[in-house]
Amino acid sequence: MSEIFDVLRREFIYVWYYFTIQLRQIFWYWVLGMVIGSAVSVFAKDAIHGAFEKIRDKKWGLWGLIPASILGVASPLCMYGTIPIAASFSKHGMRHNWLAAFMMSSVLLNPQLIMYSTALGTTALIIRIVSCTVCGVVAGLVVHIVYKDKPFFNFEGFEPRASHDTHPNLFLRFIFNLGRNLKATGLYFLLGVLLSALFQRYVPADKFAELFGKTNEGFGVLMAATIGVPLYACGGGTIPLIREWLAMGMSMGSASAFMITGPATKITNLGALKIVLGMKRFILYIAFVMAFSLVTGMIVNLIV
């Protein structure tokens, strides 16, 4: 019995060692992401959504998909916050292909997650920003081609929610928002660090690189896109995992595929999207996400 306890104790020390190293390396990226995300939400959210509202009457045609997608990336809201805003835009006559671009990129990325992703290095950060923005543009194009002038979303019953950021003191409003962000993401962040420590301790780097590396890039990208569906729970929680996977030999293309399917198929996001899309369009959405992530992963592996 004492031998078993000795083994467990030794393994705990190893995992704790890897955990503390990972935590020290990435903790301040997480903190910076919290601060920037809360600052954008408190001080710039209305300006971002106002800018999207202002482009409604512009005669930009399909070119309008680009600013719509960029503003989606800049929006700090989660999907349950984005849908009521999009419903309001739709009610005021916003084109549904522009809304599709805005919502798709908003699902994939936000200012907070951009700051988290700086922990992955400049190359991964640029790839994430570009691929998520392009995904929004392509989603808008698909809606335009397939549905033309027919409505794509059904926003019946969705109204803008009351904002939590109502305190008259701007500094306290920021502090309260930061506290909500910490509460919402802290546990997932620590879980991500723990999982990355477990990977580092128990998963052989050479086997991982063989499965997800460039030597097996087609299957690796497919596998990464697939595991993004069940593994993704919170953007901040997956950054330590992706960072460790890249260090273990995961190709940048596989990481890119994971970073698209993960947030796009996050359970809370899917629940909201199923309501506004209906079953037929919801299946189209899932097929689009998987296809785009696979193509993106293959292209990234060719370029990087």
List keywords for this structure.
13 helices, 0% strand, 304 residues, single chain
Walk me through the structure.
The chain has helices spanning 2-43, 45-54, 65-74, 79-91, 96-108, 111-117, 122-147, 170-202, 205-212, 217-231, 235-248, 252-264, 267-303. It has 304 residues and is mainly α. The protein has one domain (2-303). Helix 10 (217-231) packs antiparallel against helix 13. The longest helix is centred in the first third of the chain and has 42 residues, at 2-43. The chain is globular. The mean pLDDT is 85.
Distance between the terminal alpha carbons, to the nearest Å? 51 Å
Structural class: mainly alpha
Low-confidence stretches: none
Largest sheet: none
Secondary structure: number of strands = 0
Give the overall form: globular
- Arithmetic mean pLDDT: 85
Write the layout of secondary structure elements.
Elements: H1 2-43, H2 45-54, H3 65-74, H4 79-91, H5 96-108, H6 111-117, H7 122-147, H8 170-202, H9 205-212, H10 217-231, H11 235-248, H12 252-264, H13 267-303
TL;DR?
The chain has about 300 residues and is mainly alpha-helical. The protein contains 13 helices and no strands.
